[in-house]
Design brief:
It is built from 25 helices and 20 strands. By secondary structure, it is of the alpha/beta class. The protein folds into three domains: 169 residues, no CATH class; 194 residues, Rossmann fold; 191 residues, P-loop containing nucleotide triphosphate hydrolases (Rossmann fold, 3-Layer(aba) Sandwich). Keywords: ATP-binding, Helicase, Hydrolase, Nucleotide-binding.
Length: 639
């Protein structure tokens, strides 16, 4: 599937595009999307021009919106908003009703709900909201339906207008096979019989923002480059076979054998299966390859650093980093003159958490001829960013896939594995590994959660409160993160909130970049801002950024907890949360505890139905189609 860019360039009207799309020539390889480096100090807030403050005050908008407005719209934000007040929707956190109120408060003739500018801005806002939910594109009919819900009378026309303005891109449907038509072994489906027989069209036109279109195309092209520039040859094959034979476990041996002959290998499994990429790293380093293992969290980085040692026990046999540190340049092997990582093999664990942009940055940073292993658990909640990279790569069937047969041990392993196949058993837990705590309402859920963290878990399991993480469904509600954190702070670290609502010793969650949250502890504050300790590093967050980047962290959401584990976890499921849950959420939340999980349960038998009947909605993306189209094109060229 190729992006149609004629509308953006002005060569064709949007109506022409939708009626008869014509794919353009393949784009040249793009540079990797930039990733901001990690820094000991958070970015300083922008300087806000006086006219921005004046405009917001005139419209009755909160003064705190000034810095985010300038960040989103630039120093000419006041001029932009006077010309088109609905551009306020580009500011994170602003909702349509707030932008409408802002527009009504400003002078001008085109301020009605039927304003074309409003329809265009809402189309972009809805696609941005979809991206936060994981989708890189939407069907054109779905976007029009969502626009109509916001009283856009000519919803489909608004989509066309946004395409004509270059605010979004549209993608032509192509001939494609469905999941049912695709052979299970990944081979190509047979051509339809008879002259002129047509393949089934992929479906309706898709629309999306350029940011995600470029990222998906860049990722697909980067994967294709890895596949076509890698030549395994026969040299060293015997050494790879010896390395595979020397490790324990059939899945680890299978993984090493697959990597010996392929540029890209996918590996799936639970927490215990992470020992297999570690064994691969050790074996490859012993063979003389430059190996880098990239973990999602700092905790996993340290565990892998210990596990991924060569036969002599040297910890420097390969480099272990976090994904953020590798891309930011604060960790890792460094880059060569062309900007590529100086590695022969990159192994990424928890790869299901990679958003499209992050994955594209990693792939585009690999040198030609390098190997890449993406390892993850497909059952977990997906990335915080748009895309479902690991799932799309598995579905495209373009490379070897190794499914681990290593089970997670004990009652917790049994519980989580059962959830993964749609069952919620009552497991035997002789050492209190799993405890179910029934509750009647949200207030009782908060009370029992605090009791578990402060008293019951330390006494019965031996895990102190600072090593226990509370996981709940969302921020709001009677048992959301806000209510739970208020109660937990009052019990575990009471104080006056002297530092903009925080006290020294508070447990917090720092979000230096969208989609990346890091647990931290408050050290104090000074004129520069709030001082935090994050895994041995001190970070100073300016006061102006606190509201957006720092929250109390005794209780967090399952999405924020993904990629991390704690000795004990308390999962809170209030009775009114059923509509927000699916099997992936339950699987992720129940898997956050290493030694113990308490489930504060207000759903009753509804939880069993959620696990059995609601596997989780798929994300709408283009990556799989791009990859399969590239494979088909290559196969035609080789014939």
């Amino acid at each position: 599937m190729a992006a149609v860019r004629a509308v953006e360039s002005g060569e064709r009207a949007a109506t022409d595009f939708f009626a008869a799309p014509a794919p353009p020539p393949r784009a040249a390889r793009r540079a990797a999307p930039p990733v901001a480096p990690a820094a000991p100090h958070a970015a300083a807030p922008p300087e806000v021009p006086g006219e921005v403050h004046e405009l917001l005050a005139r419209a009755g908008a909160p003064a705190a919106l000034a810095a985010p407005v300038v960040l989103a719209l630039g120093p000419q934000a006041a001029e932009v908003l006077l010309e088109d007040p609905w551009q306020l929707l580009l500011v994170p956190g602003v909702r349509p009703e707030q932008a409408d109120a802002f527009a009504r408060a400003l002078p001008g003739e085109e301020r009605s709900p039927d304003s074309p500018a409003r329809g265009r801005a809402l189309a972009v806002w809805l696609l941005s909201r979809a991206a936060r939910q994981g989708h890189t594109v939407l069907e054109v009919g779905m976007l029009a339906q969502q626009l109509a819900a916001f009283s856009v009378s000519e919803a489909e026309a608004a989509v066309y207008a946004a395409a004509e303005e270059g605010l979004l891109l549209a993608f032509a449907p192509e001939q494609a096979q469905t999941d049912e038509q695709a052979p299970a072994d990944g081979t190509e489906a047979a051509e339809p019989a008879g002259d002129g027989a047509a393949a089934e069209p992929a479906g309706p036109v898709l629309v999306g923002l350029e940011r995600w279109a470029l990222a998906e195309e860049s990722l697909a092209e980067g994967v294709q480059r890895l596949l076509t520039t890698f030549t395994p040859g026969t040299e060293g094959r015997e050494e790879w076979e010896k390395a595979a034979a020397s490790v324990s476990g059939p899945s680890a041996r299978e993984l090493i054998g697959a990597v010996a002959g392929a540029a890209l290998v996918l590996h799936s499994g639970g927490e215990s299966a992470k020992a297999e990429p570690a064994a691969l790293a050790s074996a490859a380093a012993a063979l003389g390859l430059r190996v880098c293992v990239a973990a999602w969290s700092e905790e996993d980085r340290e565990r892998l650093r210990v596990a991924a040692t060569d036969g002599a026990g040297r910890e420097d046999a390969c480099t272990t980093v976090t994904v953020a540190g590798l891309l930011g340049g604060s960790e890792g092997p460094g880059r060569d003159e062309e900007g590529c990582f100086t590695v022969d093999l990159l192994i990424v664990t928890d790869a299901g958490l990679l958003g499209t942009e992050t994955a594209a940055a990693l792939v585009e940073s690999l040198p030609e001829g390098a190997r890449l292993v993406l390892s993850g658990d497909p059952q977990l909640l997906g990335s915080a960013g748009a895309g479902q990279v690991l799932g799309d790569l598995f579905a495209a069937r373009i490379c070897p896939q190794v499914v681990s047969r290593t089970p997670d041990p004990g009652p917790l392993g049994e519980l989580v594995s059962s959830i993964g196949i749609g069952e919620l058993p009552r497991v035997e837990a002789p050492d209190h590994e799993v405890v179910i705590v029934p509750v009647r309402d949200a207030g009782e859920a908060v009370h029992r959660s605090v009791q578990l963290v402060a008293d019951s878990v330390p006494r019965a399991v031996g895990v102190p409160a600072e090593q226990t993480q509370v996981v709940t469904v969302g921020q709001e509600g009677g048992a959301g993160t806000k209510a739970l954190n208020a109660a937990l702070k009052q019990r575990l670290n009471p104080g006056t909130g002297a530092f903009d609502g925080f006290d020294a010793g508070d447990r917090v969650l720092h979000t230096p970049q969208p989609g990346r949250s890091v647990p931290a502890t408050v050290l104090g504050a000074d004129d520069a801002g709030l001082r935090l300790e994050c895994f041995g590093q001190q970070v100073t967050v300016p006061r102006e950024l606190l509201a957006e980047t720092v929250r109390h962290g005794w209780a967090i959401t399952a999405h924020q907890a993904a990629g991390r584990r704690w000795p004990a976890a308390v999962v809170v499921l209030p009775g009114d949360a059923g509509a927000l849950l699916d099997r992936r959420w339950v699987y992720t939340a129940f898997g956050r505890g290493v030694r113990h999980v308490s489930v504060v349960q207000g759903l009753g038998p509804e939880l069993d139905r959620i696990v059995a009947e609601r596997p989780g909605a798929p994300r709408v993306t283009r990556l799989r189609s791009l990859l399969t189209a590239q494979r088909a094109e290559q196969q035609r060229a080789e014939q």
